[in-house]
Amino acid sequence: MTSHAGCSPLYNHQFDTLQGDKINLCDYQSKPILVVNTASKCGFTPQFSALESLYKKYQDKGLLVIGFPSNDFNQEFSTDKEVKDFCKLTYAVEFPMTTKSNVTGKSANPFYQELIKETGQTPKWNFYKYLILPQGKKVYAYSSTTTPDSPDILDKIKAELK
Question: 67 with 51: CB under 8 angstroms?
Answer without folding.
Answer: yes
